[in-house]
Prior knowledge:
Strand content: 5-15%
Strand order of the largest sheet: 1-2
Oligomer: single chain
Number of strands: 2
Amino acid sequence: MQRYTHLDRAEEAKLDLKVLIEDTVETLSRELKDKDIELTLDLESVPSFHCRPQQPSAVFTNLLL
């Protein structure tokens, strides 16, 4: 949760996309359950890359909602 809530504080960081998606799903899990949505993740390892973490996090949040 701490990684997710502090995304706006990082300018650019090395990002593990799998961890970011897992954190996003965990943060939204209650809202998804309230909508009777069951989400199962089957993620493979993805190479880390540098970016501003809040940007892909916002994309995944919007896609899931």
